[in-house]
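Subject: Interface between my chains keeps coming out wrong

I've been trying for a while to get a sensible model of this assembly. When I model each chain on its own everything looks fine, but I need the whole thing in one frame so I can look at the contacts. Pasting all components below, labels as-is. Any help appreciated, I'm running out of ideas.
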Amino acid sequence: MAFTDEQLERYSRHIILKEIGVKGQKKLLAGKVLIIGAGGLGAPAAMYLAAAGVGTIGIADADKVDLSNLQRQVIHTTNDIGKRKVESAAETMRAINPDITVNTYYDFVNSSNIMDLIADYDFILDGTDNFPAKFLINDACVMAGKPFSHAGIIRFKGQLTTVIPGEGPCYRCIFKNPPPKDAVPTCKQAGVIGAMGGVIGSLQAMEAVKYLTGVGELLSGYLLTYDALKMEFHKVKLPPRGDGCAVCSDHPTITELIDYEQAACDMKQ
Amino acid sequence: MKITVAGETKEFDDGISVSKLIELENVETPQYVTVSVNEEFVDSGAFGSTALKDGDNVEFLYFMGGGR
Amino acid sequence: MADLDFTVDETIDITSVTCPVTFVKTKVALDEMDEGQVLQVHLNDGEPRQNVPRSIADEGHEVLRLDDNGDGTYELYIRKVGD
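Reply #2:
Try treating it as a single job with all components included. I did that and got this:
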């Protein structure tokens, strides 16, 4: 595949980079990333990946744009209120870069649809806002051998890790089970600073770009935490993938996907 | 003795347990925190019986559920 | 112009584009060539003459020579190194 003059100009800042170059940009254009959740984390990630020329981007979300989303979900505008988030996000992504294909999935992920959803993608980005979804994405990606970026944000804090199934530890290696309903605050109850999604979602996009191009070292085996009030990043080294994990060990006890119950306050309003 | 907690080295009484450290560090939602000592996870049932020693490197890992 | 002691495999003209597309076009042309082949680049004086040979050398390619055409343009000869 040869670049058109327009592509050369659009991606010139990538192509100039020694680490990316022509080959890296071609890998991005051939790359397929699925973003689950078109919200605080998914919005910036989707915009950067679209701009970067990731050739196929899937976006899954069963919500519609709400006024309260606009403080942080920068892919949607005031005119989009009431629209399906996936449609609003896809319009923005196509406007940024008509070069790419955007697939939309107006659906919540659950144990019966997630395997089909992730099957066609190279890398998955978890931009969901609840523990049942985060555990489901982890387990499905581990079972399907799909690398993914996990992240969470709340108040002035955020964290992320990259899971490479079979190589590094997974989310369940760190947290064995979801916390009981309402035991741990989510951002709907606790609030979140808008730019936090920008910081952490952009880092997730960075991991996707690095994975697709094979450049640098992924955040596998580490949990990176960010405290905006202290303005501190802290990289926590995780224990290696061991025998203890119920899903990613060589002898897993969890072999089927689980639909955990959602906390009442996080159900669709 | 000196223990490094979340990257910061501080002075603590000799031989304190993980439970005591959780209390001293005012860990939020302590019943749901994951703790690693020298890059190994400590089972939550063993927090009280796990004594820390000089030079240990302790990390607290918290659930963070938000994202949308 | 002095005689060349090598053969040119590909030629591009980057006089109609500006930085950084000058370098990008050169890089893309080299990417499509085989190791050891020579690319001749027709470029303008000024920024392209200053930046393109240096950037290409930074990428590890061999800058064979840069000839002044005397009309505000130059001929740059690059041997591709690596794949």
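Reply #3:
Confirming on my end. The first strand of chain C starts at residue 10 and ends at 13.
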